[in-house]
Amino acid sequence: TNHADGIDYMISVASGIVSGIVDSIFVGEFSLEEASKWGTEKTEKFVRKVAKLQGYNGDKLSGAVSFLEDKYKIAADKATSDFGGGSQHHLSDFSHHPTPIGLMFSMLTQFTKKVYGTDTNGFFKVVELKEEDLVLIGNNTKEKFVFGTVTWFFHMVSDMVGASGTIRGNESSYQLGTGLPGPIVSLLKEISALPIFNKMDKDGKKEISVWLNKLFDGTLLGEKFDLRTEIGIAREVGRQSIPVILNECIVRSFYFIRRLFEEIRDKGIKKFKDLKKIDWRRTAPFKNRTIVRMMTIATGTFTAI
């Protein structure tokens, strides 16, 4: 049963007020635009850093991307036109997904000489590389693993902020370039190729594929939902969780300290060795009706504020 008293309720309300004020004044509302901006800044710094570690001596982002592109070419880029061209092939070509599944398809390309993904209608597609493009396929197992993993990784880095062609001569618009899909969109795109997703629109395209294409290129939400945005969203979620965690900590800490004090008082504990008399289950701020009631009041107050 619930054993909360007036002091418990007062602390719960106070915690909700403090957390609500922190959320309203210091945290603010969730912003996809801010998430995209922050993620873009972080990926830019990462691309520059990696390029410099690999021998790039310049300062421009376009130069860093161009340097990595030229040094780490992958066979899948030879099939760009088969997977929707420059605006969509990073999403449609599975080996351009910066995930373990993307790595798997990169390796598969090395051993089968084929590129895997979806066509413009959302159906699974396999493209065989032309003879002249096999120069980017390893001649032996060791080379295949190097091309499929190391080269693939650095190429993914170069594509994070878009191709160098979208950056050259206009450093301020690099964010408009086609970046990479993040882990969430990549996984959804891979799943969408399964036969169970067969609902078509009036143009004969998979509806889920059309939706993902619009999500990725920014026509659905007004912001490109790519790797840069997903990185920023992770930060936004962390920022939004601050007042929630604060509210939890205040209420649960008060509950624990007050019940611990009551145990020490009621059992006449005056020495360290007497602490074994404490019923720690009574002090734990979890799994009891009292703390549930306190958290309900604190959260309700927080939400109202």
Summarize the helices and strands and which ones pair or pack.
Elements: H1 6-27, H2 32-53, H3 61-71, H4 89-92, H5 100-112, E1 114-118, E2 124-128, H6 141-159, H7 183-192, H8 207-217, H9 227-266, H10 280-283, H11 289-304
Antiparallel strand pairs: 1-2
Helix pairs in contact: 1-9, 1-11, 2-3, 2-9, 3-6, 5-6, 7-8, 9-11
Q: What does the model show?
A:
The chain contains 11 helices and 2 strands. The protein is mainly alpha-helical and 305 residues long. The protein has a two-stranded antiparallel ribbon with strand order 1-2. Strand 1 (114-118) and strand 2 form a beta hairpin. Helix 2 packs across helix 3 (61-71), helix 7 runs antiparallel to helix 8 and helix 9 (227-266) crosses helix 11 (289-304). The chain is elongated and about 85 Å long. The chain starts with 5 loop residues before the first helix and ends with a helix. The model has no long low-confidence stretch (mean pLDDT 91).
Q: Quick summary of this structure?
A:
The chain is mostly helical.
Order of helices and strands: HHHHHEEHHHHHH
- Strand line-up across the major sheet: 1-2
Mean pLDDT: 91
Structural class: mainly alpha
Task: Specify the overall morphology.
Answer: elongated
Number of strands: 2
The biggest sheet amounts to: 2 strands, antiparallel
Give the radius of gyration.
Answer: 27 Å
Which consecutive residue ranges, at least 5 long each, have pLDDT under 50? none
* Discrete helix count: 11
* End-to-end distance: 28 Å
Helix content: 55-70%
Strand content: under 5%
